[in-house]
Write a sequence for this structure.
């Protein structure tokens, strides 16, 4: 029906609401965003209220807004379907005051959704608000509640890692044209560590007799963040191999990180020494073990893949590098920038910081970049610049770009291509292979092994916060590539050096590379890395070496007649399995549970692997365990990475569990009254990451949405283990017997080559991988041995 306005006499005067132009002048053109909180605690549950006051531009009918934050944050995923549930996000409209003669807004409603890819990198995660049926006036307000509790919800779980300036940025589409403008003035939050929860001790795993070393003691919250500004006193209890103890006081720094460096420690007696820190009389959960031996060389521990907020990391370069040195206790750090994203001025400043922090004998620091080519063009490769001086980046001596391409938040116009595909990355550095180390890896854009440069690519990254990639290592070696083992954090969250996992896509424990070198400086470490004298861990200070006669892992040689392979493993939780691989084939194995003697009452359920090889690879497991025919006396989670992965009792002989595996393995150890008469049933659902859609209904793993396994105690006693292999990447469910006896932390032995049945006249890449009872792992670089 057409509205008929009353007839008025024509007037030639100009009409406008009284004072509206002056009113508009009092408002910022694009509006302003405010927040009622400025500080948060990592991992806390809260309700966060933000208010957007519409600016002088107004919001047209059909307009929309995006409240965005960075993709690496593991803030719990927001949902918009259950107002009584956790992490509910809402937006509501409040009309502003009108000036004389001004018409009210006509907006009917606001519609809210959450999209993890709702905006541009790095501000990709976005709460999206659509204006429904009408427009908004300047001065109107939109109130956004993250974790709206008004209908009984629990609130929202904050990001679990600390950040000096977590940013919420608002983008508006004022004309309804889907062309977005950034509202000036981000909402900045300081996210701090929580209460002290655990005390950590970091020390080298192997040293020589009377060799001086430093130990680091630090206090962490429940999420693995090192506490701040805590005036605490502690003690370090040192237990000698003969059981004698001595105690040293520990005075933690009263300001800044709550940590202490105990310098100048040394041990005169050979054997395993135990270092246990105590706070308020309570011992640390995980003591450090140091093996002291005559003639032993201390291995260095490196994290060669560390980001900062120069590109997609958390906090600045100085923060990340000094965290690596002082809190993670690293010997070697490789600072990494996404090559397409870094601004040249920031790169130059970071290189200066790196050179200033580099200190022979204490802390070796390398600059580096991450060539971010898509998988179709070869995939991610890190470039570590091993020489002193200014690295050859972002331009060569002729002024040509050495980036994959150039794009960042300030880029205008089209993406500018650089060196693409990976062949041209090789061409940029192959004239100086000794000064460069390229490391293919699996991150967001996984490396494709159709490409390989034998002189530049001497190592391959087989573990990081993205997951564990044993399959990548075996594929590379099966193709005939001579690559050694490395692991790193690929740290985006400010906790390099095997830092605690987050709850999102970076859900695995970051790795470390062990480096065997007799020189603790850039030249010595760089030479050892290129020589592949390395092993890779899943973040622990464990140790491994594999040799044949005088030949050490990483070497290419002809095998001497009659000389066996020799191995040595040092860990912290007890070694349960050791495997020797030739490329992608297991040729030898030890089961330490069987050697120690299986328990008559204890079994373990293990689940692990990944859904796919590419980004969002995690397999999310949720399910139930039912035990009948025996009493369930105890149940303990094994390998769980953070507090949101757990197992709990739901009834008599019944458990629930929830976890995620990114190529790693988690488990549940059960203690029964008797195994022989028992029956164990496991039923689980597998789903993927909620990249899009409702996080309350995550997408099922389409190739194996459900799995069940039921076994009898008699079958387990007969077979030792029963498993199901699932469609995915090393995706598996297993029920197995375990021992009640302690497993060895120190394991050594020899493997006769004749027992391996290796084909003569061809090169065999032989490497060792081992797993501890807590599901941590280690890999050696191969012996490239021709029999």
């Amino acid at each position: 029906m057409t509205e008929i306005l009353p007839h008025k006499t024509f007037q030639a005067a100009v009409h406008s609401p009284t004072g509206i132009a002056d009113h508009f002048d009092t408002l910022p053109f694009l509006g302003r965003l405010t927040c009622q909180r400025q500080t948060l605690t990592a991992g806390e549950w809260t309700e966060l209220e933000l208010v957007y006051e519409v600016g002088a531009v107004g919001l047209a009918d059909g307009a929309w807004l995006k409240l965005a934050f960075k993709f690496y944050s593991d803030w719990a995923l927001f949902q918009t379907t259950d107002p009584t549930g956790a992490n509910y996000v809402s937006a509501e409209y409040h009309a502003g005051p009108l000036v004389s003669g001004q018409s009210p807004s006509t907006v009917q409603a606001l519609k809210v959704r959450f999209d993890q890819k709702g905006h541009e990198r790095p501000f990709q995660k976005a709460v999206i608000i659509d204006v429904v049926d009408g427009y908004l006036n300047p001065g109107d307000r939109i109130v956004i509640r993250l974790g709206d509790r008004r209908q009984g919800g629990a609130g929202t779980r904050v990001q679990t890692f600390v950040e000096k300036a977590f940013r919420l940025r608002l983008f508006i589409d004022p004309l309804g044209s889907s062309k977005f403008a950034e509202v000036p003035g981000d909402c900045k939050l300081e996210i701090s560590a929580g209460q002290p929860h655990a005390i950590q001790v970091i020390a080298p795993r192997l040293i020589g007799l009377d060799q001086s070393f430093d130990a680091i003691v630090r206090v962490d919250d429940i999420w693995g963040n090192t506490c701040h500004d805590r005036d605490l006193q502690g003690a370090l209890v040192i237990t000698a191999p003969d059981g004698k103890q001595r105690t040293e006081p520990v005075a933690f720094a009263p300001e800044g990180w709550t940590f202490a460096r105990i310098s100048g420690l040394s041990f005169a007696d050979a054997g395993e020494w135990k270092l246990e820190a105590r706070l308020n009389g309570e011992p640390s959960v995980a003591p450090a073990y140091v093996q002291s031996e005559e003639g032993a060389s201390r291995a260095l521990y490196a994290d060669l893949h560390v980001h900062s907020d120069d590109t997609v990391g958390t906090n600045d370069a100085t923060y990340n590098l000094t965290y690596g040195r002082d809190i993670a206790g690293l010997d070697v750090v490789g600072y990494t920038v996404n090559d397409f994203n870094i601004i040249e001025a920031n790169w130059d400043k970071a290189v200066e910081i790196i050179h200033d922090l580099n200190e022979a004998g204490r802390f070796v620091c390398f600059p580096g970049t991450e060539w971010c080519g898509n998988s179709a063009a070869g995939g991610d490769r890190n470039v570590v610049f091993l020489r002193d001086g200014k690295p050859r980046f972002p331009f060569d001596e002729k002024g040509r770009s050495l980036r994959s391409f150039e794009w960042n938040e300030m880029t205008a116009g089209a993406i500018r291509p650089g060196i693409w595909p990976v062949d041209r990355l090789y061409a940029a550095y192959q004239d100086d292979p000794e000064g460069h180390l390229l490391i293919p890896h699996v991150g967001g854009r996984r490396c494709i092994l159709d490409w390989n440069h034998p002189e530049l690519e001497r190592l391959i990254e087989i573990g990081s916060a993205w997951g564990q990639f044993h399959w990548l290592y075996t594929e590379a070696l099966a193709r005939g590539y001579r690559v050694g083992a490395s692991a790193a954090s690929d740290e985006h969250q400010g906790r390099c050096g095997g830092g605690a996992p987050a709850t999102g896509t970076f859900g695995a424990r970051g790795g470390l590379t062990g480096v065997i070198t007799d020189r603790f400086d850039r030249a010595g470490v760089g030479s050892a890395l290129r020589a592949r004298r390395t092993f890779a861990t899943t973040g622990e200070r464990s140790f491994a070496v594999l040799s044949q006669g005088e030949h050490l892992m990483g070497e290419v040689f002809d095998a001497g007649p009659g000389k066996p392979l020799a191995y040595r493993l040092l860990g912290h939780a007890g070694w349960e399995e050791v495997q020797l691989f030739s490329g992608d084939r297991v040729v030898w194995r030890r089961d330490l549970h069987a050697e120690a003697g299986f328990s008559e009452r204890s079994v373990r359920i293990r689940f692990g692997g990944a859904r796919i090889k590419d980004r969002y690879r995690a397999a999310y497991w949720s399910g139930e365990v039912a035990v009948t025919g025996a009493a369930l006396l105890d149940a303990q989670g094994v390998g769980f990475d953070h507090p949101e992965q757990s197992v709990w009792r739901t009834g008599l002989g019944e458990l629930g569990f929830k976890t995620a595996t990114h190529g790693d393995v988690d488990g549940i150890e059960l203690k029964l009254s008797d195994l022989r008469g028992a029956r164990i049933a496991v039923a689980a659902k597998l789903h993927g990451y909620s990249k899009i859609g409702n996080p309350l209904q995550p997408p099922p793993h389409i190739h194996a949405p459900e799995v069940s396994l039921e076994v009898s105690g008699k079958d387990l006693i007969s077979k030792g283990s029963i498993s199901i292999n699932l469609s995915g990447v090393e995706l598996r469910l297993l029920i197995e017997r375990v021992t009640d006896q302690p497993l060895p932390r120190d394991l050594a032995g020899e493997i006769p080559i004749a027992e391996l049945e290796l084909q003569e006249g061809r090169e065999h890449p032989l490497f060792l991988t081992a797993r501890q009872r807590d599901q941590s792992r280690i890999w050696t670089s191969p012996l490239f041995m021709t029999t």
Notes: The longest strand covers residues 598-610. The longest helix spans residues 344-357.
